[in-house]
Structures are given as structure tokens and as C-alpha cells.
Amino acid sequence: MQRISSFKTAWQLLKSSCGGAAKQVNISQAIARSFSHRPPEGPNSFGLLFDIDGVLVRGRTLIPEAKQCFRNLVDRSGKYKVPVVFVTNAGNCMRQTKAEHLSHLLDVEVSPDQVMLSHSPLRMFTQFHKMRVLVSGQGPVEEVAHNLGFQDVVTIDMLREAYPLLDVVDHSRRPKDSIPPTKGLQPIDAVILFGEPIRWETNLQLIIDVLLTNGNPDNNWNSGQYPHIPVLACNMDLLWMAEAKNPRFGHGMFLVCLESLYKKVTGYDLKYEALIGKPSVVTYNYAELLIRQQAEGLGWTAPVKRLYAIGDNPMADIYGANLYNHYLQASRRTKAQMQAKAGGVETVDDAPKMTSAELGGASGAYGAEEDLPEGCSSILVCTGVYSRDQQELPSDPDHTVTEQHIFHGHRDFRFDPTLTQPSFVVQDVKEAVELVFEQEGWPLE
């Protein structure tokens, strides 16, 4: 798989991908109109990464403390004091739609450039943009795919129409009377999984058909043809929190079904070209680019030193923030080793290496010589998936993991319970922001 060779390359891709004719203005100048606060003493610069479901809302219901906390994040004119990015694993809409919804709920202006959906990093996977891709999910998936840069898009409904005999689980949708002709399509080159679909049986069946026929459902299944065409998946959340008392199935549950079916039929493991969305490192890399972009709009000259990721899901939000923090520390070690080697000193790095899945398909995406943040702290709130009354974090008083916990993360991620241990635990998002301001020595207003 083609890799993004440097931070500068990724930065250029980000700026070009914000695109369209309406984006020919200077992005930093545009953001500066909404961001006006400079950090005290210059170097104390930080950015905030907010999860949405379970932190700011539950389903369509706003968590009351969310609106209160944003009073500390904007000045009296409504302009932001610090860079803010909303990082969600949702992906069934456009960024503009999500920004408008958040603006309405929070009573502050939220720009699309502050919103990061699970599929947003796909803008950087340009090697797939000219391929014919099958997209799965719900909402305006075709529009979303085109907006991300994919030029030749096939939806599940288009596939059903072209091959009317494939989808037969629901008897009411089976062909009546005569057998309709197959229209056929050009072979599919890759599969993009945006999020959980509405009709799981239809999507599971047709995706398996595409994988077992090398992208051409006109052919017979061939389980011996392995590996299959590329699969890129966004949003690995097994569970998420809506208005119900208990968590609901997320796209991660759909992936479990797809993986199990493929393994059952073929005997092989389903392979992913990329796993995107929290907790993969590429998601936080991309979020950091957005934070850096906003810091430039603020007029901050010092690099952003710290990120604070606020979430409700230990396996997605906390695991991802801690994994990214490990990545940042590894990048700093690599930089120090390169400098030592240049000075004739040999060093040994015995830290565990991250898997390709954990990196999200972005191994080597950012050069160690760049000014990445010093660290990323994870803050767990108790208003969503995690509840102090129902769950215990996997640590003893000395912060050493001693218990075996059920792993809700993706199959291709290591089970490292230490990464589910947050830097801080607070009741809600308002307490989280107050904690960050206290940590950074910023005044609360």
C-alpha cells in the first residue's frame, strides 16, 4: 500500500482536500475570524478533541453540561479561545451537516473544518480515489464518497439493481413472476465500509459476493482466490450510547459479522487495507492537523504542545488517545535516536512496535523531524458508554492492570488493558474542560 511519506505531504493533502471552488480563500484567515484568543505566555498552547455521542449528546438529546462547558471555550463575542475539533466515529452524513447540527445544539458557531468524521482521513488515501469502489453504510454515502475524492462509486442499491437475484433473504424483495435480467457492472476494485447499514443481511450478502468473485458478482464464488480485493473500514465502535439505558450496536458489530461470515465460508481471515476512525493513530494524526490549522488561524506562533481527548468509550476514545500518545513518544524517541546516530552514538529502542491496524494504514505517515505535540492526555466522562456505577477501570491503586477484561476492541488491535486507563476521570464534559484549563493555568470565566 502506498504510504504518505512525510508530514508536509499530509499537510498539503489536507489543505487541498478541504477543496472546491468555495475553498479558494486562505483557510487560516477564515478560521481567524472565529478564533481570537492567544495563549498566556505563548508556549502554553493546547488543543481539545471532543467526542460527540455520550459526551455532548445522547442520541438527539443534548447533555446539559455540554452547552455550559462551551461558555469557557468561547469569548463574549462567540469566538473560540483555543483550537477545538469534534472527533466522532459517526460517518453517515457530511461534515457541513454535522457542523450545523452542533452549532444549533451548543449555541456556538461550529465550522465544518472543526468536524472530523470517522471517514475524514480517507481524503489522504489518494491511491484508491480513481478505483471503482463499492460503498456500504447509510445516509448520503455516494455524496460522502465523492466528497472524499472517490470518483467511481457504486452503492449497495446500485449493486442490487444490477444483480437482482443476489438479495433474497427478505421474501418481499425477491423477484416476482419472471426472473429479471442481470444488467451487470464493471468489476469493483475495492470496498469502503463507512458505517452500519440499515439492512445488514443485504449488505453482508452482497459484500461477501463481491469479495468472493474478485469484484465481479457475475462470476462464481472462488474462496481460493486470496487475498481478496482491498477493504477499507471506518468506525470500529462495537457499542455506542444513545437515549436507551444500555449501549447500542455500532459498526464494529457489523464488522464482527462480516469477518465471521468470510472466515466461515472461506477459512481465511478477512483482511483490511486500512482501519480508520478511533482508536487508530491515523485518525488522531489527522485531527492534530486540524488543530494545527486552527492554531495558525489564532495567530499562535508556538507549536501546539498538548492535546486533550475527551470521550466516553474506554475502548475507542481512551484507547485511541493513549495509543496516539504512545505514537508521539515513539516519534520523539526516533528523533532522539536519529540525532544520537548522527553524533556517532548507537541506541536501542526496545519499545513494542505498533501494528499496521493500530496505525490505521498510515505507517510512516509523519516524519519524526516535525514538531508533533509532546503528548495527548485522555479524559473519560461518565455520561455515555462508561459509567462509574456499572464498570470498573482495569487498574489497582498503583495503576497496574491486574484484572482480565472483555476486549471490545477490533480483532486486529492488541489487547492492552493499560491503554484503556484514562489520564483523568470526570463526571461530565464541563468538568473535563475545567480540568484542562486548570492543568494549563488558564482562567475560567
Automatic annotation (TrEMBL):
GO biological process annotation, one example: glycerophospholipid biosynthetic process
GO annotation, cellular component aspect: mitochondrion
Domain of life per record: Eukaryota
SUPFAM superfamilies: HAD-like (SSF56784)
Keyword Signal: yes
Record-linked Gene3D superfamilies: HAD superfamily/HAD-like
Keywords, ordered alphabetically: Signal
Family matches, as InterPro entries: CDP-alcohol_PTase-I (IPR050324), HAD-like_sf (IPR036412), HAD-SF_hydro_IIA (IPR006357), HAD-SF_hydro_IIA_CECR5 (IPR006353), HAD_sf (IPR023214)
Family, similarity comment: Belongs to the HAD-like hydrolase superfamily.
Protein name: Haloacid dehalogenase-like hydrolase domain-containing 5
